């Protein structure tokens, strides 16, 4: 048996998926692919995505299970002797194919499941768009923690409220004695090489990724990816990885992409004054999120200057530079330099030069493929 994970309505997850495939989006303690694969130990996994990612050509075999990158299944789908499509909330999220021809592109996948008549509902969550990453994150944090085979160590000298069995730190994680961890509402996992500096507070469920430094911050029910620098307050948010929010300021109910740098006092709103449902732009169309609390979604390599304010339900593209302080527009396309008074296109050459410097500081070199993805994003810069 083989497993193939395919991109599904990636436009609903823009601008977070400009530089990496949809199944690489973080949720809980893992990315989407990691969550799915955890139910299939030892099964060879392949991926189907948009053509510009130049993923390896899939080599299906009988049988092959195809699963959508919008699916967060909570069970393993057993190999069946017949072809069946699978649903979550009655929406198709995959199928099992027994014999050729096997789909090898997104279009072929969509055509294939239309021909399969029998369906089975499975347990899990369905990600309709970027809002659902925030909606289900705390639930997935708890679920991922509960499935850990090795739960690390419980650090000594840290102030803990709640059941200590819900706190685990990798052996090479560093937690200073003045750190406070609240486990009343859920578990906390501190990954390898993470550092929690004195006077940091972590409220579970939360995950702190490898190599991340938390500097006197308050982290509430959030997922912080690898090699981030976090200060101030973060609530119910996801940091994909390699992001800087080192100073005072608040980020709540938000998703922050890779290589984002949030200047001192950058703060977003995640609640309307009338406590109403937040509206947000998804794939070019504004919709009602159905969520009372919803912050901002910021694409990779975006930077804010000191004193930046971000409105409720904002969607900010990749390679945006906002400076001079004040309120950002609610929607900003990719590759923009702007203030509250003017806006211009960010030059591609300069953007790549800056990205190389920023990434080199964390020991990451830009590959030609990554540079090509930046150029591809630039071609579509007037959309999110």
Question: What does this protein structure show overall?
Answer:
With 384 residues, the chain is an alpha/beta fold. It has 2 domains: 2-128, Alpha-Beta Complex (Spore Coat Polysaccharide Biosynthesis Protein SpsA, Chain A); 152-379, UDP N-Acetylglucosamine Acyltransferase, domain 1 (3 Solenoid). 15% of the residues lie in helices and 32% in strands. The strands form 9 sheets. A 9-stranded parallel β-sheet has the order 12-15-18-21-24-27-32-35-38. A 6-stranded mixed β-sheet has the order 4-1-5-8-7-9. The chain has a 6-stranded parallel β-sheet with strand order 11-14-17-20-23-26, with no helix packed on it. The chain is globular. The model has no long low-confidence stretch (mean pLDDT 95). It comes from candidate division WOR-3 bacterium. This is Glucose-1-phosphate thymidylyltransferase.
Supply database-style keywords.
single chain; 384 residues; alpha/beta; Spore Coat Polysaccharide Biosynthesis Protein SpsA, Chain A; UDP N-Acetylglucosamine Acyltransferase, domain 1; 2 domains; 9-stranded parallel sheet; 40 strands; Glucose-1-phosphate thymidylyltransferase; GlmU-like
Instruction: Count all strands and give the number.
Output: 40
Corresponding CATH architecture of the largest domain: 3 Solenoid
Stretches where pLDDT is under 50 for at least 5 consecutive residues are none
Net shape: globular
The SS-based structural class is: alpha/beta
Radius of gyration equals 21 Å
Question: Mean pLDDT score, rounded?
Answer: 95
Per CATH, the superfamily of the largest domain is Hexapeptide repeat proteins
How many domains is the backbone divided into?
Answer: 2
How many helix segments? 6
Strand order of the largest sheet: 12-15-18-21-24-27-32-35-38
Q: For this entry, what is the oligomeric state of its chains?
A: single chain
Q: Tell me roughly what share of residues is in helical segments.
A: 10-25%
Biggest beta-sheet profile: 9 strands, parallel
Protein name: Glucose-1-phosphate thymidylyltransferase
Organism: candidate division WOR-3 bacterium
Pfam families: NTP_transf_4
GO molecular function, one term: acyltransferase activity
